[in-house]
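1-acyl-sn-glycerol-3-phosphate acyltransferase, Oleiphilus messinensis. Tokens?
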Amino acid sequence: MAALFFNLRIQVEDVANIPQQHCVVVSNHQSSLETVLLQTLFNPLSTVLKIELLKMPVVGRALRFMEPIAIDRSEPVLSYKSLIREGENRLGAQRSVLIFPEGTRVAIGAPIRFNKGAASLAVRCQVPILPVAHNSGLHWPQLNPDRQRRIITFKIGKPIYPQGKTVSQVHRESECWVADNVKMLPSVVEGHASGR
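Tokens:
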């Protein structure tokens, strides 16, 4: 509904790359839109999020139904252990896990730097990583005063299988794929600043 209000069209490319098995989904993080949209593409899906969101009166209650993995970013060591422990539990229950390895929202055009949590989880559980690149920060949540139809593109990569690979190899492969594909997506609105 919100996308309709802002006159947005969501374009998802290469849906056929989504594996039949549960996996670790990794994506760049530019806005709240990708958090919602990716929930519709992968079911069931548990999202790694900051614990503060669960403390919000209405939003927190809704999020709990999606069996998220809540982490405290002020405690990085404990957060990592929680990610691995809870991630193993979700994957063991045949749920995919969504991780934004940048750790926070990053402005469109900024360099993409992943932490190794997602790669560590995938290697430990021997499940594929599925990389996703998008440009949601180009239009969302910016207002659209001219009411022109705007397109946000999500591109889904091929699964990265961890068998025979180290955490560093899986981490680097997923980070490079997302970074390279984000660069190929539109990053400037014609006639408007992109927020760079």
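Helices lie at 2-5, 33-41, 57-64, 76-92, 117-125, 167-184.
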